[in-house]
Design a protein that fits this description.
Strand content: 15-25%
Mean pLDDT: 86
Shape: flat
Length: 96
């Protein structure tokens, strides 16, 4: 879609849709802990705490109803696991 080919009505509708999507991204915020949020992302809901992302287990039926205490339990469980590191591939051998 070229910016020059968009009509004014289409542009207004695209902007409105983007703002609506941004509103729906935040599922829950906590007044007692401002660093803690539950967001709806591309691959499902997740927790953001101090600029770190934590996935919500699939066993949780409704992420919007999680309490701050339950979120901290999920964070503690995932923080104790070591992070996965990418394995480096060896360079291809040069032909002689």
């Amino acid at each position: 879609m070229s910016p020059a080919a968009i009509a004014l009505d289409e542009a207004v509708e695209l902007i409105r849709a983007k703002r609506e999507a941004e509103k729906n991204k935040t599922l829950k915020t906590f007044a007692e802990d401002t660093d803690l949020q539950i967001l709806n992302g591309r691959y499902g809901p997740y927790i953001v705490y101090k600029k770190e992302n934590y996935k919500i287990p699939k066993t949780v039926e409704s992420p919007a109803e999680l309490t701050a205490e339950q979120c901290h339990e999920i964070i503690a469980a995932q923080a104790s696991k070591p992070k996965k590191t990418a394995t480096r591939k060896t360079a291809a051998r040069k032909k002689q």
